[in-house]
């Protein structure tokens, strides 16, 4: 087996908790955070359910102790909070002591700010500063500035697989010797643009999302940020670091099928999983838990399910579940928060529940794990699939 790259720190803020510990307690206790919208002024507030972090922008400003004239987007603030947690968890006191980088993923960027002031820019020069925070790269730079990081800063935006690709690139940078450690993850805030966009695509559920259920109606959007600290074995050894888990495998593929839909047979998903297995030096039977992408849309669950059946065999699929009924689909942050959950599964030998499941899908005989299950978990496979057919798979392994 490939030893992989060490994970030494994690940070997360989501609708189910403001820390790694809070999120873990919520997952253990089936604490769902899918509610109506409170922080955004939208005509859909009373009818659409989302995974919303119940902190206002002003509360986030105060938490980060930002100046009154700051131009931080909500996405940047959530990201900065999670990244700071990860750095602290890794015990890093001198951020630039080694060759250190930040690879941050986002799809929304500063959209929550620019759309808020859209009609007023030409009348109020004070608002022009928010145009500058629109770009996804601004989010990454602000997070780096908050960390005091002077090294490589890169932004990835491949829709819902963004954070998986950030983790993948970070691992590759360490393996190649380009960086000694890298903070990887993703952040996305809720915005009118995404709410309206997904409603137009007709893939939002009018209730709670039901991954891999035959009667699933669609997804609930969410907002979150999560980051992991990846470090080289040399740094781990020098500083006698505790290793939480390892990134042992990763793969990316594109099924080139449709702008917003995966191929019905899961061709891209299958290729991504196969690449991850090849790199990790593992076989499908080595996987103890699959954290599926599981968006609860008709297309995704069919496509992902068929890919899993093709790879594992219908009767040999390991325990699997989607954690999106807890948090909603957090877009570019999804793979990052699910990476944290995958590491928690390994650390605590637990498989989290796939909530809201009732009826198996008619296309195959796949039944997710619907209750909390304790078992030995050495390897977790985590899938993330984005618009444009961008399919990514990560494999996390116990440090041995």
Summarize, please.
This protein has twelve helices and 14 strands. With 400 residues, it is an alpha/beta fold.
For this entry, give a set of tags.
ten-stranded mixed sheet; 12 helices; alpha/beta
List strands and helices in order, with pairings.
Elements: E1 5-13, H1 20-28, E2 35-36, E3 49-50, H2 57-64, H3 74-89, E4 100-105, H4 111-116, H5 136-147, E5 153-156, H6 162-175, E6 181-188, H7 192-200, E7 224-231, H8 233-238, E8 245-254, H9 267-280, E9 289-291, H10 298-312, E10 319-321, H11 324-327, H12 334-348, E11 350-351, E12 373-374, E13 379-386, E14 390-397
Parallel strand pairs: 4-5, 4-6, 9-10, 9-13
Antiparallel strand pairs: 1-7, 1-8, 2-3, 6-7, 8-14, 11-12, 13-14
Helix pairs in contact: 2-3, 3-5, 6-12, 9-10
Outline the structure in words.
It is a single chain. By secondary structure, this protein is α/β, with parallel strands linked by helices. It has helices spanning 20-28, 57-64, 74-89, 111-116, 136-147, 162-175, 192-200, 233-238, 267-280, 298-312, 324-327, 334-348, and strands at residues 5-13, 35-36, 49-50, 100-105, 153-156, 181-188, 224-231, 245-254, 289-291, 319-321, 350-351, 373-374, 379-386, 390-397. A 10-stranded mixed β-sheet has the order 5-4-6-7-1-8-14-13-9-10, with helices on both faces. It has a two-stranded antiparallel sheet with strand order 2-3. It has a two-stranded antiparallel sheet with strand order 11-12. Helix 6 crosses helix 12 (334-348) and helix 9 (267-280) packs across helix 10. It is globular and about 65 Å long. The mean pLDDT is 95.
């Amino acid at each position: 087996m490939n030893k992989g790259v060490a994970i030494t720190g994690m940070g997360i803020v989501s609708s189910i908790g403001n820390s790694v510990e809070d999120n873990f307690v919520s997952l253990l206790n089936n604490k769902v955070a899918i509610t109506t919208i409170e922080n955004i002024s939208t005509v859909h507030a009373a009818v659409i359910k989302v995974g919303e972090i119940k902190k206002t922008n002003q509360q986030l400003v105060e938490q980060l102790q930002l100046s009154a004239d700051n131009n931080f987007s909500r996405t940047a603030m959530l990201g900065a909070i999670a990244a700071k947690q990860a750095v602290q968890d890794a015990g890093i006191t001198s951020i630039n002591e080694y060759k250190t980088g930040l690879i941050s993923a986002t799809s929304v960027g500063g959209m929550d700010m620019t759309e808020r002031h859209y009609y007023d820019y030409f009348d109020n020069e004070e608002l022009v500063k928010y145009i500058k925070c629109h770009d996804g790269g601004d989010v990454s730079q602000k997070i780096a500035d908050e960390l005091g990081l002077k090294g490589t800063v890169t932004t990835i935006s491949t829709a819902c697989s963004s954070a998986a690709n950030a983790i993948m690139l970070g691992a590759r940078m360490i393996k190649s010797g380009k960086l000694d450690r890298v903070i990887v993850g993703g952040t996305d805030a809720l915005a009118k643009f995404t709410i309206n966009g997904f409603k137009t695509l007709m893939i939002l559920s009018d209730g709670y999302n039901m991954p891999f259920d035959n009667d699933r109606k669609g997804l609930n959007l969410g907002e979150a940020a999560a980051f992991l600290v990846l470090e080289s074995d040399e740094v781990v050894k020098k500083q006698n670091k505790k290793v939480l888990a390892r990134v042992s495998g990763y793969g990316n593929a594109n099924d080139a099928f449709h702008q917003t839909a995966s191929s019905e047979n899961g061709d891209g998903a299958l290729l991504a999983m196969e690449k991850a297995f090849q790199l990790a030096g593992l076989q499908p039977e080595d996987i103890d838990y699959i954290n599926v992408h599981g968006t609860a849309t008709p297309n995704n669950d069919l496509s992902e399910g068929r890919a899993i059946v093709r790879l594992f065999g219908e009767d040999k699929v390991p325990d699997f579940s989607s954690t999106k009924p807890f948090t909603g689909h957090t877009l570019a942050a999804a793979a990052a928060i699910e990476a944290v959950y995958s590491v928690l599964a390994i650390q605590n030998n637990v498989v989290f529940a796939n909530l809201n499941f009732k009826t198996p899908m008619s296309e195959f005989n796949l039944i997710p794990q619907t209750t909390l299950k304790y078992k030995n978990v050495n390897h977790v496979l985590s899938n993330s699939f984005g618009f444009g057919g961008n399919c990514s798979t990560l494999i996390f392994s116990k440090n041995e």
